[in-house]
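#structure-requests
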Amino acid sequence: MKKDNFYAKTAFILSLGFWIPLFNIGLTIVSIFFACKALKLVDKDPKKYSGRTLAIIALILSITTLVGMFAGLIYWLVLNS
């Protein structure tokens, strides 16, 4: 029986916090950390751990959020200079 991967679930829940202003940067960075840790656990012992899909989705959401935040910041800086 496979164990639920706590890190994958946590990463997914934190990656959904991209819409919370001021907290989204911290939540995104922590979500990337947990998603990477979950993927390492699943790769290390796939028969023991589950949650690969959740970890990948969390990683995609978090990276997309970071890219969007930095693109928006650069766009704002260019417009206001």
